[in-house]
């Protein structure tokens, strides 16, 4: 059974509207994942793109239709604020098909995490070239054993992060072939964990709470990263957490 949904968020962001616009339209890999719809700064949507409103740097609306009648619509409204900052009103609406409960809960939780990551990018890495490590949308998925109710607890233990870790707490752990992760917690809920380092943003997704498995991705703002090689290294580490 399908069902309509709407998720709305309003967030203040530490950058000018033009920078927010560029992050959303040209650099989603810096805070979310590559979408295949990246539009370079100063450009315009190509013919046939599912963009229904294009008003830089104020308003962007994307609507993607599926043959089964479901759809996803993303509405970004950006307003200037004092001090060179911006306010974003974000609305994700659509129709979900079977299993909509897990899908809605996942969208709701991921929305907060992605928008927080957008703010982290704009505050700490704004404008720097990024290498996204992971598969678009799904990131790097753990094995079947990463789907148990306590799978995020195992992930936190592997990183040396306590269940009650607070934002700003230090993180230092070996990721085996991917080297070490040295940084601070920048986001922590039972379902999600964010770690910010000098080189980028590591995101850990407790999708075991939504009928899937724990996953991760990385947004790295340093030169010389081989995305495929780093993905394989992180995948091996993540599998090892649950072996």
Secondary structure blueprint with pairings:
Elements: E1 3-13, H1 17-25, E2 51-55, E3 59-65, E4 71-81, E5 85-96, H2 100-124, E6 131-133, E7 140-141, H3 151-159, E8 170-174, E9 180-188, E10 192-197, E11 200-205, E12 215-220, H4 227-241
Antiparallel strand pairs: 1-5, 2-3, 3-4, 4-5, 6-12, 7-12, 8-9, 9-10, 10-11, 11-12
Structure summarized in a few sentences:
Helix content is 24%, strand content 34%.
Keywords:
12 strands, 243 residues, 5-stranded antiparallel sheet, alpha+beta, globular, 7-stranded antiparallel sheet, 4 helices
Order of helices and strands: EHEEEEHEEHEEEEEH
Q: What separation lies between the terminal Cα atoms?
A: 37 Å
Kindly state the number of beta strands: 12
Kindly report the average pLDDT value.
Answer: 95
Tell me, what's the shape?
A: globular
- Structural class comes to alpha+beta
From the alpha-carbon coordinates, what is the Rg to the nearest angstrom?
18 Å
Count of helical regions = 4
Helix content: 10-25%
Largest sheet: 7 strands, antiparallel
Low-confidence stretches: none
């Amino acid at each position: 059974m399908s069902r309509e949904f709407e998720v709305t968020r309003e967030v203040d962001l530490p950058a000018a509207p033009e920078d927010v616009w560029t992050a959303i339209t040209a650099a989603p890999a810096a805070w979310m994942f590559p979408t295949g719809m990246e539009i370079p700064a100063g450009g315009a949507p190509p013919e046939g793109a599912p963009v229904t409103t294009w008003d830089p740097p104020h308003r962007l609306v994307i609507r993607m239709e599926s043959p089964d009648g479901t759809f996803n619509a993303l509405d970004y409204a950006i307003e200037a604020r004092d001090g060179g900052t911006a306010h974003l009103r974000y609305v994700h609406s659509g129709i979900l098909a079977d299993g909509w409960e897990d899908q809605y809960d996942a969208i709701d939780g991921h929305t907060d995490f992605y928008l927080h990551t957008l703010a982290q990018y704009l505050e700490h890495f704004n404008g720097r070239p990024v290498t996204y490590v992971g598969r678009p949308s799904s990131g790097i998925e753990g094995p079947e054993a990463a789907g148990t109710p306590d799978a995020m607890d195992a992930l936190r233990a592997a990183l040396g992060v306590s269940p009650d870790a607070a934002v700003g707490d230090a993180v230092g752990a070996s990721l085996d072939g991917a080297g070490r992760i040295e940084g601070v917690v920048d986001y922590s809920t039972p379902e999600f964990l964010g770690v910010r380092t000098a080189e980028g943003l590591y995101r850990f997704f407790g999708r075991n709470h939504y009928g899937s498995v724990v996953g991760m991705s990385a947004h790295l703002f340093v030169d010389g990263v081989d995305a495929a090689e780093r993905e394989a290294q992180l995948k091996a580490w993540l599998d090892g957490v649950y072996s």
